[in-house]
Amino acid sequence: MLKFGYGGRVLRINLTERKSQIEMLDPLWVRDVIGGRAANTKRLFEELDPNCDSLGPDNILIFGIGPLTGSLLPASAYYTVTAKSPLTGILGDSTAGGQFAAEMKLTGFDQIIITGRADSLVYLMVTESGAELVDCPEYAGKTITEVTKSIRRERKNYSIQVAAIGPAGENHVLFSAIVSSGNRVNGRTGMGAVMGAKNLKALAVRGSHSLEVADPLAFLSEVEKIVKDILSHKEYKKRYQMGTTMLMKDLNNIGILPTKHFQEGVCIYVDEISGQKLESKHKVKNKACFNCNLHCSRYYMVGDLEAEGPEFETLCSFTSRIGNSNLPFALEMNAYLNQMGLDSISTSEVMGWIMECQEKGLIHPDDLDGLSITWGEVDKIRDIVNMITFRRGIGDKLANGAKKLAESFGEEARKLVMQVKGLDMICGDPRGIKGYGLTYAIASRGADHLRAEPYFELTNRKDEAKKRFGTEKAADRLAEEGKAALVSYSEKIALLTDSMTMCKNIGLCMDILNFERASALLKSATGIDYSPEYLEKIMGDFFDIEFKLNRSFGLRREDDTLPERFLKEPLNEGPTKGSTVDIKRMVDEYYKIHKWE
Amino acid sequence: MIEVDISKCTGCKRCEAVCAFFRTGKINNRLARIKVMNLYEIGIDGPVVCNQCKERYCMCCPDDALSMGSLSQVIISPTLCTLCAACEEACPIGAIEIFDDLVYVCDLCGGRPKCVEACTEGAITYEAEGAEYPSLAFFKKETNKMNPSQKRHFYIKRQGSEVRKKWSKRYA
């Protein structure tokens, strides 16, 4: 039995039968996936019928953490939620930080696997003894904060952590989110809708199992090195002040800040919507995930509104991407989306796509129940988001996401959906960051950067690039050369952060984690002899599981590409002017590295 | 005494994690003698730890298992303690709690509190001498029938309302 690092147990809950069962986590089963995202994917691969209805009882919803989650390792506060995605029909998962994962660790369950469908609205209270199913019809329509507050108050315990869905998840909006710690979001791929379809309003955790590591002194000494490296990192101050919102200006400076739905890469009013502006005008204090010494999150107030966040993706999605220069409005939307449980990127894509199509005359208002909208019309945006949340009027169609919505329109309009494999693209124009472009194309959950986060290409470290990836070009953001090598390295580190678990901003973007370090941490924490070479091998091997799983959902090689805009239309202005993406070259090289097909 | 400025607390719980780890070799917030509350709905976070209150409500121990050390810290005698929970009930802010047959309360780590070292934000500081111990009479009255978790919640929420007044003035 796994004693150190791991809780060593798995909790299975069948909502249809209202039964739960505790299993031991098989040490051999978990050894080559470590935990977290990789273990969740392996579970899905082994147990899910790929043809099941993602919103039916047979879909499997998994909450998973890793052996270092909630430990003394800074920023080890992540959990992953995995299921078949109702938005994309393929592998769906999303991670979040905050406090939920560390408390889940104390329940002694490394995975909570939820199947079936409750016949009416319930929530689950999971402790070290197992699961209690609680009927909660009174929670229908409640926001994230209301549910969190109620569960804690009723149970007279404020250490309880809650991951809940809002009205959007209950209404099966296909890009609805799960939210914990008030504002920590499992946003992507519609995990909220899967939870909603199971009639599960919330998963609450509170445990009293202690986390023990195999060699506390050795583990402590590894942790102390990392603590020092974070505190002395050259980006520390900037990240402390602004978190990821620092990227608003950073991306604009290199001409890749999505503006007017990726038609432009330079936003002239960036100073009105920047991380700097947010910090100086609205931030009241820093916030942090469990045991993090970077504290990169922020709490803000604007008028009578307040919330934590936003992160860069939400900020950009509700400002430049939809042509809005009104920062307080974006902050209002961040608070609203987090309470209603909606993914900001996909919500923005629906609107940005309509705005561009209407501007180009490709969609008539009559085709959308009279809806007519253009850049930055905040009152209309507010209304549309509300209609999506409750599937009201045309909102019912919009709630299925931009790609499905576009299916009833012409080819020109369909091409303008900024998505890969049905997942709406994140904010970062791939024409100026080719490694990211490759990542969006090959990422197993669709257009997403977090699968590899090749931030290295933005750091201009030419010598290091030559050493690590065989060419200086790996550090040149505009080059295709060397990017397959870069991505196939950093996707392994990304997977490692998601599996052991650690924050990607710190582990990957700040280049804190590598296989040597992970080996020392995992050895001292779990007592299992993970060598750096073995870790690199198992992380690499994992992609074959993902590959097979997604093939079973019907994906093909042709799906590993980018929207046509990025391949054919160069940007007209700014430091990325004139560049397009040779995606075929990079994907071919990437496939060669993986020895696929 | 350990002074807490909750306006600087980010809710990271590093104090709580190192407290448990350095005293027990494990991580578990029930093993920590400083416990952080995250009040998500109002953006307030803050650690609760024994502040050696003027009143010393916990010294009501019927078995004389509690005494005051040279740093004014609470010292528990495990041999005299019968786990009657009188001290837990008496503390108005939930800074004393029994878990797994042991009483957990801050003893200032003998004068070099680990939590203070772990806090990068200056939210927890330590003053060895000249500290003015606060009165908890108000909380004693208000939290009378609550469990330790509810007491901590009430205490931090109350303190948070002062912080929020300042925020509103400046930002809202």
Question: How would you sum up this structure, described in words?
Answer:
The complex is a heterodimer of chains A (597) and B (172). By secondary structure, chain A is of the alpha+beta class. Chain A has 3 domains: 9-205, Aldehyde Ferredoxin Oxidoreductase,  A, domain 1; 244-409, Aldehyde Ferredoxin Oxidoreductase Protein, subunit A, domain 2 (Orthogonal Bundle); 429-513 and 556-594, Aldehyde Ferredoxin Oxidoreductase Protein, subunit A, domain 3 (Orthogonal Bundle), CATH 1.10.599. Chain A contains 26 helices and 18 strands. Chain A has a 6-stranded mixed β-sheet. Chain A has a 6-stranded mixed β-sheet with strand order 8-7-12-9-10-11. In chain A, strands 14-15-16 form a 3-stranded antiparallel β-sheet. The longest helix of chain A has 21 residues, at 532-552. In chain B, β5 (66-68) and β6 (74-76) form a beta hairpin. Chain B is 30% helix and 17% strand. Chain B has one domain. Chain B has helices at 14-24, 86-90, 114-118, 137-142, 148-171; strands spanning 2-4, 26-27, 35-39, 44-48, 66-68, 74-76, 97-99, 102-104, 124-126. The longest helix of chain B has 24 residues, at 148-171. In chain B, strands 1-9 form a two-stranded antiparallel ribbon.
Q: What are the salient characteristics of this protein?
A:
heterodimer, A: 597 residues, alpha+beta, Aldehyde Ferredoxin Oxidoreductase,  A, domain 1, Aldehyde Ferredoxin Oxidoreductase Protein, subunit A, domain 2, Aldehyde Ferredoxin Oxidoreductase Protein, subunit A, domain 3, 3 domains, 6-stranded mixed sheet, 18 strands, 14% strand, B: 172 residues, two-stranded antiparallel sheet, 9 strands, globular
Kindly summarize this structure in a few lines:
The complex is a heterodimer of chains A (597) and B (172). Helices cover 40% and strands 14% of the residues of chain A.
